[in-house]
Design goal:
It is a single chain. This protein has a 3-stranded antiparallel sheet. The chain has 7 helices and 3 strands. With about 190 residues, it is mainly alpha-helical. Helix 1 packs across helix 3. A hairpin with a 2-residue loop joins strand 2 and strand 3. The protein is elongated.
Length: about 190
């Protein structure tokens, strides 16, 4: 089987949450559910569904439509369900942006409590290490690649330092949110 893309995984998760959904409806569901993390157009969705069908991960029922192609309603096959669960349980690789974690966690309702907590704990560890790496002051070593004679260092400080400070704030807020979410999962399940 070919390696599945982010869109392929997203479609598997959405089809699991919305059995007997058409490609057209999937476009709407993506906009309403994962749209803040990942968007897809019809020209991306239909080829991805065809690929998932060819791989044996989804099946469909075709409903005839007068003077048009049949409308296909997709469901996961047992192989598709197994593949989806493997992906959901697989550790999420930490990345500087929040995208990878957020997209996978959109499908937390399909995960066990232990898997959700494991993903949150891994993200907490990753974000904690990033946060520890951000200093409050200008770190001379971080500018070691610059030739200070060729660059206005006051301008570098005025532009780069606020970026580093903003990143530090984002990481701190993300860590607080993850801690709160972890508590909620522990108490609500």
């Amino acid at each position: 089987m070919h390696t599945l893309s982010e869109l392929d995984h997203t479609l598997l998760g959405l089809i699991c949450l919305h059995p007997k959904v058409s490609g057209y409806e999937l476009n709407r569901v993506i906009k309403e559910s994962t749209g803040y993390v990942m968007m897809a157009s019809f020209s991306q969705i239909y080829p991805a569904l065809k690929k998932l069908h060819s791989a044996g991960l989804v099946d469909y029922e075709a409903e005839p439509v007068k003077n048009r192609l049949s409308k296909k309603y997709y469901t996961l096959t047992s192989d598709g369900e197994e593949y989806l669960q493997t992906w959901l349980n697989k550790p999420i690789e930490g990345t500087l942006d929040f995208h990878t974690f957020t997209l996978r966690m959109v499908f937390a309702p399909l995960m066990s409590k232990d898997v959700i907590l494991r993903h949150i704990d891994n993200e907490l560890a990753y974000r904690g290490s990033l946060f520890a790496g951000f200093g409050d002051q200008r770190n001379e070593a971080s500018y070691s690649f610059l030739n200070e004679g060729d660059v206005d260092m006051d301008k570098v400080d005025a532009t780069w330092l606020p970026i580093a400070q903003g990143e530090r704030r984002l990481q701190a807020e993300w860590l607080d949110w993850l801690k709160d979410w972890r508590k909620q999962i522990e108490s609500d399940f």
